[in-house]
Amino acid sequence: LPLEERLANYVVEGSKEGLIADLDQALSKYAPLDIINGPLMKGMEEVGRLFNNNELIVAEVLQSAEVMKASVAHLEPHMEKAESAVKGKILLATVKGDVHDIGKNLVEIILSNNGFDIVNLGIKVPPDQIIEAARNEKPDAIGLSGLLVKSAQQMVITAQDLKNSGIDVPILVGGAALTRKFTKNRIAPEYDGLVLYAKDAMDGLDIANKLSN
Ligand code: B1M
After folding, report:
1. 169 lines ligand 1 (CB under 6 A)
2. Signal sequence: where (predicted)?
């Protein structure tokens, strides 16, 4: 099989045998982020499709997630790092009820490689924990990630709770269950500060850069 297909297959099959050697080969042709956004994401999309069709069980999807995480960890040291002064502090969290963290952690890597100080609160983070962290850390923005349909609704609740506690720093939202339209029509009206939608991690970086200017 061609290299690109082999890379996608590691994710689909949840197998790490030969993965590192193929990632190293890919690094001689592609930028690390293009390997993630290309063949590895293609594999993840296929995992999502198979899971949806009941052709994979959760345990298998978890193994695919492990392959994705190991790949990102291997590629991360090869990513470009900007030698800039700290541009700002950003809190990151996967919202309450949601365990998906691969996208959020990718956002963390890309933002921290580009001069942002990141406080990663982890997964299933309830609003009160975000509020407490916002009070202690005084971030310039708060990033929320969520992949489940119910997580989009949880973002509305989180925005309301943040507003009720007097927080109005910009919120950056992203994740598969979310759309620009939902962000604009459902989350933004519930909040006093800016609410910005990022379609992927690079878009998140663009937005963060604009906010810091
Ligand atoms: Co889950 N899962 N999962 N899962 N899982 C999805 C999301 C699903 C679409 C699969 C499907 O059915 N086709 C589906 C959601 C259905 C829905 O609500 N509409 C689903 C389901 C149903 C579930 C469970 C309920 C399954 C079960 O238990 N029966 C369960 C939920 C548990 C819970 O959260 N309470 C569950 C569990 C899991 C695993 C634990 C097995 C595993 C996660 C492991 C982990 O993250 N540590 C898992 C996985 C891996 C997936 C899929 C296959 C892949 C997600 C992923 O990592 N993608 C996913 C299907 C899919 O998306 N194709 C699926 C790669 C990642 C890089 O992309 O996170 O989208 P993503 O991030 C992107 C952008 O969205 C954006 O940038 C990234 C790219 O640059 N982005 C941001 C994300 N966050 C951002 C934040 C930002 C900016 C950009 O600023 C702050």
Report:
1. no
2. none
**Whether the complex's predicted ipTM surpasses the cut of 0.95:** yes
H or E, element range at 210: helix 201-212
Helical residues (DSSP H) of 76-200, grouped into ranges: 102-113, 127-137, 149-164, 180-182
CA 100 / ligand 1 centre spacing (Å): 5
| Gap between the Cα atoms of 199 and 197, Å rounded | 6
Strand partners, 125: 95
Q: Specify the pairing of strand 171-174 against strand 141-145.
A: parallel
Residue 67 tokens, joined = 């392959």
Whether 148 is in the pocket of ligand 1, judged by its Cβ within 6 Å, is yes
The 10s digit of each residue's pLDDT in 167-197 is 999 999 999 989 999 999 999 999 999 999 9
The answer to whether the CB of 168 is under 6 A from ligand 1 is no
Check: CB of residue 184 under 8 Å from CB of residue 159: no
DSSP-based three-state secondary structure for 158: helix
Can you give the pLDDT at residue 177?
A: 87
Q: Is the pTM higher than 0.90?
A: yes
Give the residues of the chain that fall short of pLDDT 70.
none
